[in-house]
Amino acid sequence: MEFKKNIPIYLQIMDKLKQDISLKVIEPGGKLMSTRELAVKLKVNPNTVSRVYRELESENIVFTKRGMGTFVVEDENILQNIKNNMANDIVVKFIRDMSNLNISPEEAIKMLKEIEEE
């Protein structure tokens, strides 16, 4: 995973895990890598991964079983909300970026439709 310099690493890791969870790359009820394993894989400090897991747990996306590890929740409503929130963030950023180019939402939609038809 390559990290962007202008976004905190822990947020980028959180987003990637949320994406993997919403796409069911990591299944509901599935076990996440240990803090140390993920830190080694991503070449980051284990404290960064610990923070990611704490944040995900505070958002009720994962839960920890003492001595067993960290697991993805199985609540489909929570999992659907993750996907909806991520999609909403993408749309908001898209609209903001288009607005910065003085392109109206209507023009942006027209452009999307044209691209989709190609």
From TrEMBL:
Gene3D superfamilies reported for this sequence: Winged helix-like DNA-binding domain superfamily/Winged helix DNA-binding domain
Segments passing through the bilayer: none
Keywords: DNA-binding, Transcription, Transcription regulation
Presence of keyword Transcription: yes
A Pfam family per the record: GntR
Keyword DNA-binding found: yes
Record-annotated HTH gntR-type domain positions: 7-75
Coiled-coil annotated spans: none
Name this polypeptide is given: GntR family transcriptional regulator
Domain of life assignment: Bacteria
